[in-house]
Amino acid sequence: MMTDVILVPKVQHKISLEAEVIKPDEFAGKTIEEIKELPVYFGNTVQKLGDFFEVSGSAEENAENLRIVVEGDVSRVKRIGEGMTTGEILVKGDVDMYLGARMKGGRIVVEGSVDSFAGQQMRGGEIEIKGNAKDYLGGSYRGDWRGMRGGRIIVEGNAGKEVAEFMRGGEIIIKGNCDSFAGVHMKKGLVIIEGSVAERVGAEMVGGSIIVLGEMANLLPSFKIGEVVEGLKIDGREFPGKFRKYIGDFAEGPSVKGVIYKRL
Amino acid sequence: MATITDVICPFCGTLCDDIEVVVNGSKIESARHACKIGNSKFLSINDIPRPIKPLIRENGASREASIDEAIAKAAEILSNSKRALLFGWSSTSCEATAVGIEIAEEIGGLIDGTTTVCHGPTVMAVQYVGLPSVTLGEIKNRADLVIYWGANPMHAHPRHLSRYSIFPRGYFRERGQQDRELIVVDVRKTDTAKIANHFIQVEFGKDYELLSALRMIVNGGELEEEEVAGVPKEKIIELADKMMNCQFGILFFGMGLTMSPGKHRNIDNAISLVKNLNRHTKFSIMPMRGHWNVTGFGEVMTWQTGYPFAVDFSRGYARYNPGETSANDVLQREEVDAVLVVASDPVAHFPRKSVAHLARVPMITIAPHHSLTTELSEIFIPSSMVGIEEEGTAYRMDTVPLFTRKVIDPPQGVLSDVEILKRILEKIREMR
Amino acid sequence: MSELVLKNGIVYDPINNVNGEKMDILVKDGKIVEKLNGNAKTIDCSGKIVMPGGIEIHSHMAGGKVNGGRLFQPEDHVRFAMPKTKVTRSGTGFSTPTTFLTGYLYSKMGYTTGMTAAMPPLMARHTHEELKDIPMIDKGAYCLTDGNWFIMKYLKNGEIEKCAAYVSWLLKATKGYVVKITNPCGTEAWGWGKNCRSLDDPAPYFDITPRELVKGLVEVNEILKLPHSVHLHANNCGRLGNFVTTLETFKVPNGTKPAAKRQIMHATHIQFHSYGGDTWHNFESKADEIAKAVNSNKNIVIDTGTVTLDHTTTMTADGPLEYYLQSLTHLKWMNRNVEMETSPGITPFIYSRKMPTASIQWAIGLELSLLIKDPWQVLMTTDHPNAGPFIRYPRIIAWLMSRKYREETASKVHKVIYDRSTIDGIDREYSFYDIAIVTRAGEAKALGLSDRKGHLGVGADADIAVYDINPSEIDPSRDYKEIEKKFSSAAYTIKDGEILVKNGEIVQTRYGRTLWVNSKVDGELEKEVMKDIEYNFKRYYSVNLANYPVREEVLTRSTEVTRSASV
Q1: Do B174 and B242 reside in the same domain of the chain?
Q2: For the whole model, what pTM was predicted?
Q3: pLDDT, tens digit, for every residue of C492-547?
Q4: Three-state SS across C405-466?
Q5: How many domains does chain C have?
Q6: Is the ipTM value over 0.95, yes or no?
Q7: I need a surface site. Which of A131, A168, B188, C506 has the fewest CB within 10 A?
Q8: Is A142–C74 a contact, with Cβ atoms under 8 angstroms apart?
Q9: Domain at C13, CATH number
């Protein structure tokens, strides 16, 4: 049995609130009053979750059976679901940066759009975004060569630059279009772009697969053109139609294993 | 008349340290050995009128104020802020930056430098792939292949070529220029390109592709395309061969590479190319840092906070993520509620949307001269010129530290950046 | 200044042969004294260990290369952060902590002095600017001399006295404390992307071998009568089969007499120099061979460079080594050849328990500590951050004091250690007295600082560490976790008679001294050498001579150690 804790934003603010406490792991076993007391960071101050949200519903003892529903726009609330391991979050609006960053399990659904760094260094679980995602979706932290390692991200809309940056595992599906440098420095994992993709897809990738169903801008000169494949099967998924295989990025050296399949 | 030797020029990242300044009373007569821009920087202290008294703007009108009043008011604004931005720093001393960091930490604000709008992408790329580099003297003594990519030192760093790269005689390059080859890669034939042995014209915004092609060749691959970025295949292969077969190569790059499409990934690819070249020969790479102490800002930031720019102290310790904590991002999201500008002119250089927010929030500016930013500031505190009227530490583009000299007294009543900032910090602490 | 009595502590002070005696330590005006007359503040130390403050002999804690490591690893800095408090500044960084944090972390462990291991002369100002921002401890910097054109030329020409005069000038100009040699001649070869792979492999063009350079600098060091011996990072660091080079290197100073009562050579981070095998598949520990050599040579002191099995950063003036490491790991790589002097490099490194190599490296560090009989000859370091961050010292102490702890860790690393190291067969466990030697007393002696540091005798600096450990109640062999915990968090750290740390928390911050050697040589000789210096600066350096020396003002509490040379 799932129980819900409902958060309704009650104040408008330009400064982004940092609320990594919004995750089932934190709420589980707490009373509504206790949840309201959880710390959130606002500019240089520490405040309470209850100062920014009406909190209602009831929290389960077990985070696994807990769903947090955010009713409204949280486009200025960062770090929702950061590091979560289980349970569910449903956001009925837009979300700020780092949604589900370093997430290990559970599920997040966003009915609106998300800002940059969603699913950063994610290890497990699922993120579903009905709107668009900004830059570095499923990417890494600055300087870190270990991006997303597991889990799945689905974006119904479009995604920004550097999707799957330094990806090391897991799956990202973009149903709309994707901006430049998708899969940059990718090593493992799967990216599926159902719409079109901008330039420099697969830049500096050394492994992993990118499937492009729509249009693809000019490929980098350091990719090699491979054979045409009829009907694609990857990680248990099937893609009908003819695909052109490209291998790269040979800028990285002679033994690279990155693959881009472009539907013809 | 007095001549002061071994003066360090506080104009660009080349940080020439052989300037001889002739001082006559309260005027600087000349700055020997300096380039045109360096010279004019020294002579600018003679400019009249020089702002002396702090200005405070109230109800649309400016009035003169005492230094104490200006400092107290500045401290009040910063102390009451929830998300202040401290910006600038590339044209002041490391000592001033250090006080700036302490203020940012004290008030839980953000601190960022002009790096954010010049070589920020370089720093981000360095964080992904590293930076095989050398000091400039190594280049003078050893380099037989010099490449400038998206950089035009003839205009931006006029003595770079004569002091460090092409013209000087070095220990292993006794004949100077004759012992070296100069290649320029740029979107147009710049003045630097005109004196080069080879000029490679790259299509605008296609540097990344050209770099990828070069890397593929250097790593033993074969280029299939006949032309990349407007450069014919043979020319690319020739360039790769030159790079692999030199004895000591250096790739200098400028804003042509950092600010064109691809930004940090252009630099990532350029650095990776140089890394790959080290399998064949000795090759290094260096950003042509602009403002004289923009490198020093990054160094102090790094040893004190752990990050080179775009630092957010809102949680009492430093956090960093350009794109989130960088000046233009917080300004354009309208998060900032107070601004302190030191030795910089963001109003003249920031995107319109950022400037619009700067106009909206209280801004304090510390600078030696009037600028668009001081015009828009609530409080303007005139300061002395570091490197001319004050001494202080600076870092050259190759991270060599130099202690800049004082050659003349500042106008009476004008304090240094360090002094002003220290007094603001003291005042803030009093208020807490 | 205040007076202080540390009452009834159990004192370990090896320099004064005090081994776990219950006694009082009296402090006045920052010094240890025999008598007090005023009303001193009393600290009850009953049931607690009292030792001299810890001394770090080899740590990359400040300077251009360290900052390079910080700059290009934001991912290291998100790993660990300490917010500002009422008394402390904030800091970040796990393997490359920021300056303030570095001081605090040393102080929390009861350390009161630390030496930064590698300062390129041209970058000396940078090193001192960072040292200026390292609070809590006294400090000093080692001046790199390995690829120095002046030195190579003088020694090649047999001009040993001129070389000595130049080194004397260099120490003064850079405010250095030690003559440091990193990969002798190899760092010049790296100017061309090359290396020197044996003691007889000469630097290109300069045609001088590492053997000649090391021998010459050992002589120079003794002519100058410097407090420390030469501090050598030998050739072939981190390379397969390098123990042969290391053993050869130990013999190079033979025939030269130390000018003071100390070793003739300090060979650093020997863990990285004790490797056998010729492929990574037969890579093995040669720590036993190295230990044998050290056991039969009283003139050598080493520090260990013990691997702590962490994700850390490697950084050294040994540029070719860093290039080699990144070619193995394919991780980011920074390099910074410094004109006419040396060639630092940096790359991250993960010592994974699952890796045979890292596991053997871990074993080697401990084998060295345990197989070398005389603890005065084998000082404890991690070559911070190369083999691990210095914050792991308490863990190493616990490993050294407990065979059981070593066995427990051994069971979690790659089993290859049972075949290719001797760690499993070693019963030896360090006593608290041994620990006091390898973490403070031995360092003070090796550094020529034992007149004022590393002991608790009358006249010493009142740099004291108190640990909440009762030796009569604890069995370190069994309670190793407790040992690790207590050494991580000093009950008191007292610096110059002031309490800086209490119960592991910083209660007060202070800036320590910066030690440097004011080396004096004959005036005429110095003048002659100045002519060479001026000539070469005009032609080959990229800065003017006048802008090269570090001004004393940048040093916190500048403290010169004067030494008059025999020339």
Answers
A1: yes
A2: 0.97
A3: 999 999 999 999 999 999 999 999 999 999 999 999 999 999 999 999 999 999 99
A4: HHHHHHCCCCCCHHHHCCHHHCCCCCCHHHHHHHHHHHHHHHCCCCCCCCCCCCCCECCEEE
A5: 2
A6: yes
A7: B188
A8: yes
A9: 2.30.40.10
Amino acid identity of residue A190, one-letter, is: L
Show the domain range for C35.
3-51+459-506
Q: Do B313 and A220 touch (CB under 8 A)?
A: no
Residues of A in contact with B216 (CB under 8 A): 221-222, 250-251
Q: Which segments within C109-216 are labelled E, that is strand?
A: 111-119, 138-144, 178-182
Considering the domain architecture, whether residues C389 and C416 belong to the same structural domain is answered as: yes
**Number of H helices and number of E strands within chain A?**
3, 17
Task: For strands B363-367 and B338-342, give the pairing.
Answer: parallel
Q: How many CA atoms lie within 13 A of B325 on its CB side?
A: 22
Pairing of strands C505-506, C498-502: antiparallel
Which of C72, C83, C96 has the CB atom closest to B126's CB atom? C72
Does B138 lie in the same domain as B177? yes
B180–chain A nearest CA distance, Å: 28
Is residue C477 one of the residues assigned to a domain?
yes
Residues C11 and C101 in one domain: no
**Count of beta carbons in the 10 Å neighbourhood of residue C468:** 18
Q: Which residue has the tokens 């998100």?
A: C78
Domain ranges across chain A: 1-115, 129-264
Return the bridge partners of A212, or none: A193, A262
List b or e across B146-172, with b for residues whose CB sees 16 or more CB atoms inside 10 angstroms: bbbbbbbbbebbbbbbebbbbbbebbb
**Do C248 and C284 belong together in one domain?**
yes
Are residues B217 and B252 part of one domain? yes
Q: Is the pLDDT of residue C99 over 70?
A: yes
Q: What is the pLDDT of residues A184-219, one digit of tens each?
A: 999 999 999 999 999 999 999 999 999 999 999 889
B246 and B140, same structural domain?
Answer: yes
N-terminal to C-terminal alpha carbon distance within chain B = 49
Q: How many CA atoms lie within 13 A of A54 on its CB side?
A: 6
Asked if the Cβ–Cβ distance from A221 to B83 is below 8 Å, we say: no
Q: How do A152-155 and A126-129 pair as beta strands?
A: parallel
Q: Is residue C236 part of a domain?
A: yes
At C363-381, the pLDDT tens digits run 999 999 999 999 999 999 9
Q: How many CB pairs under 8 A join A and C?
A: 15
User: Domain range holding B10?
Assistant: 2-44
In one-letter notation, the amino acid at residue C337 is: N
Task: For residues C486 and C350, state if they share a domain.
Answer: no
Question: Tokens in use for C483?
Answer: 């040992």
Whether residue C43 is contained in a domain is answered as yes
Suggest the residue from B79, B260, B314, B319 to mutate for an interface test with chain A (most A CBs closer than 10 A): B314
Domain CATH number, residue B348: 3.40.50.740
Distance from CA of B324 to the nearest CA of A (A): 8
CB pairs under 8 A between B and C: 182
Which residues of chain C have a CB within 8 Å of the CB of A143? 72-76, 332
Best residue of B226, B265, B274, B330 to probe chain A, by most A CBs closer than 10 Å? B265
**In contact, C237 and C201? CB cutoff 8 Å:** no
